[in-house]
Write a structure and sequence with these properties.
3 helices
């Protein structure tokens, strides 16, 4: 049964189900490595890994962009009125809505 994307709760339920914990865990691992290696490695390599990981693990979304702080990926789904930032920090990982650019 398709989820109702017309209500805030329906949108939240959809996002929660479409961004798996495995993706957030992968973001945390990438973030840890970036913190350790950012002086020596090129962000473009991380950008490519973040995008390919998002496309593989979050197929309901398209990738808008990646970002360094907080490390994350901005995702888009045509049924949502906003974009979604899947992110990780030193303390937690999660998602939040962000205005479309």
């Amino acid at each position: 049964m398709p989820q109702d994307l017309t209500t805030p709760q329906g949108r939240a339920d959809f996002i929660q189900s479409a961004i798996p914990d495995t993706f957030l865990q992968r973001l945390a691992l990438i973030n840890d490595r970036w913190k350790d290696e950012s002086q020596y490695e090129d962000w473009k390599d991380y950008d490519a890994v973040l995008k390919s990981t998002a496309l593989a693990l979050c197929p309901a979304f398209t990738v808008v962009k990646t970002q360094k702080r907080p490390l994350g990926v901005v995702l888009r789904h045509d049924g949502l009125p906003y974009d979604v930032l899947a992110y990780t920090t030193a303390r937690n990982a999660g998602w939040k809505s962000v205005p479309r650019t």
